[in-house]
Amino acid sequence: MTGILIVILVIFSLSITPKGSEIWMDSVAKITGVWGLKCGSIQSKTAILLPGGVVWLRDGSRVMTQWSEVRVNAITEDIKQGKISKVIIPGGYVSGNLNEGLRLKIEIGKRLNKNTIKKIDIQTGKGSRSTVGNFTELLPLLDKKMDYWLYTSDWHMYRAFYVAKKMGITVCPVIIKNPHEEQKFYTYPWKLKAAVREYIAIVWYAIKGKI
Hints:
Layout: H1 2-15, H2 18-32, E1 46-49, E2 54-56, E3 62-64, H3 66-80, E4 86-89, E5 94-95, E6 98-99, H4 100-111, H5 114-119, E7 121-124, H6 131-138, E8 147-153, H7 154-166, E9 170-176, H8 187-208
Parallel strand pairs: 1-4, 1-8, 4-7, 8-9
Antiparallel strand pairs: 2-3, 5-6
Helix pairs in contact: 2-7, 2-8, 3-4, 7-8
């Protein structure tokens, strides 16, 4: 019994190191094979941007997670290049007096000049607490006859893609790989938790028939 506990402790300790957490996060995308997800050739300029969480800092302020930051950067770049003219964002979690959708809308605005902002239509949902909830709250804003670009992290794309498909929403993946930048040590256990949670969520969604 002691030997098993030692093995578990060693695996956990390695998993929260920079390299260990990187392996965990990368493994989700590799095992689910998201890079092979296919969509038809679409001309749409409308995108669905999924939120990636908010972090509470010690001073009480709230900032986007690195996942949200990378997603915002990716869609903003495509907006600047004229690939996207409309963005639909689930409200996501409510933190403080803003939900995630509004926070992402504000962050996109910060990265665009005034002329570009005027040309972009950004709509947000009221709020939700899961991937299924994200798409459920967006249904009134979507047209099932249309195709949508879907922006989310590589490790989350498998579940998001098939949830949308199950609901009759046609999406084309824009798979965003999160850079493994040097961060504060406390973020590494959080990455491990996110990866494990995603594996569990995929299995649970499959059992419940949501994907």
